[in-house]
Amino acid sequence: MNILILGSGGREHALAWAVKQNPKTDRLIVAPGNAGIAQLAECADIDILDGSAVVAFCEANAIDFVIIGPEAPLAAGVADATRAAGLLTFGPSAQAARLEASKAFTKEICDACAAPTAAYARFTESAPARAYVQTQGAPIVVKADGLAAGKGVIVAMSVDEALAAIDDMFGGEFGAAGAEVVIEEFMAGEEASFFILTDGVNALPIGTAQDHKRVGEGDTGPNTGGMGAYSPAPVLTAALQAQAMEQIVLPTIAEMARRGTPYQGVLYAGLMIDGGQCRLVEYNARFGDPETQVLMLRLGAQALDLLLACAEGRLDQARATWADDHALTVVMAANGYPGAYTKGSVIGGLSALPETSSQMVFHAGTTLRDGQITASGGRVLNVTARGATLAEAQARAYAMVDAIDWPEGFCRRDIGWRAL
Ligand code: AMP
Ligand code: GLY
């Protein structure tokens, strides 16, 4: 079959890598793609936020299956447009993607299905929000309701910090995303990610992971999109996964269906684990980045069969087969990230690295210029390896990092520390 993947990051490179290995795949196109993706698929320059442009491209290229990577096209209704055109699609409708696109909506769903999550209140005006923070005290969490590229959440350690966050949000710092603000109880504990495929009725867990959000070693410094990840996450035990399915994921799927807006795609549950229980921190309506890179290295070609079963509404017949293995990815970022960073530096040493089912360098932000791979984003490479143990996966990944010649880039040297 001919397959189109929308997106341009390490997540999409990992999805394309897994899909490409499945014999069902004939033509594989990624839009817009990047320099790493171009080594294994065709790249097409289309506006992935424009549903009619995506449909027209699919029709012109006889696409049989569309896989939507990032949240922006989901929130923009691209899955609605492709489904309306009769195209088999992986990814939720705009209504269902509100589980990521609106934090207030997610809270409403948790209330409706009694899923454990932080206590909260929601506001559309500054004065009552400020008064609420004054009565609740700190630590407290202030969130812009809408999509804010991961920057709309302030975990405030003092009341002053929370008040400043409220002023910023209602002052327009996050645009329309900050028109409504959710203020939440601070949850202590350890965070982990749980990935579940659902066709709207059936649910199939496909793995756990933990990422490292802070830029500095020992989890210090500013937040980033994620500096590394590993799978599985030992903290998410089988018992906790069962609790999360029973109390959070399955009730959410049922509530979405009951409302006439069934959720179809991957549900990424961010969980906070404390005292042997987990609570929902947030949902994402897509695969995690860089978590997908470790999930795909572990799943390999079967990932396509699972995504197809999900899109075709037959997940009840699907099964994920796991080796008893571990995968770890180290993000290499441009010096300066997550602040200002330079673009255009040349990355050497990549072509000498073997690409196998146990090690892959996924590209997150690269461009091919004059025959050379150059850095074009903040997060640039995801150096990913698999092993019988997490320690082995980690050693393999850092051996690859050490073989890459890129003085203008950096990485954390402690990815995996929590689990090791
Ligand atoms: P979110 O975008 O909702 O995932 O929030 C970003 C990060 O903020 C999460 O990954 C958590 O580390 C943190 N966070 C969000 N909500 C809470 C909460 N209620 N308590 C503690 N930390 C939180
Ligand atoms: N790694 C966090 C995310 O994808 O949202």
Please give a structural write-up.
With 420 residues, the protein is of the alpha+beta class. The chain folds into four domains: 90 residues, 3-Layer(aba) Sandwich (Rossmann fold); 67 residues, ATP-grasp fold, A domain (Dna Ligase, domain 1, 2-Layer Sandwich); 128 residues, ATP-grasp fold, B domain (D-amino Acid Aminotransferase, Chain A, domain 1), CATH 3.30.470; 85 residues, Alpha-Beta Complex (Glycinamide Ribonucleotide Synthetase, Chain A, domain 4). 30% of the residues lie in helices and 28% in strands. It contains twelve helices and 22 strands. Strands 10, 11, 14, 15, 16, 17, 18, 21 and 22 form a nine-stranded antiparallel β-sheet that branches. Strand 1, helix 1 and strand 2 form a beta-alpha-beta unit. Helix 6 crosses helix 9. The longest helix has 21 residues. The model has no long low-confidence stretch (mean pLDDT 96). Glycine (GLY) binds next to loops. Adenosine monophosphate binds next to strand 8, strand 9 and strand 16.
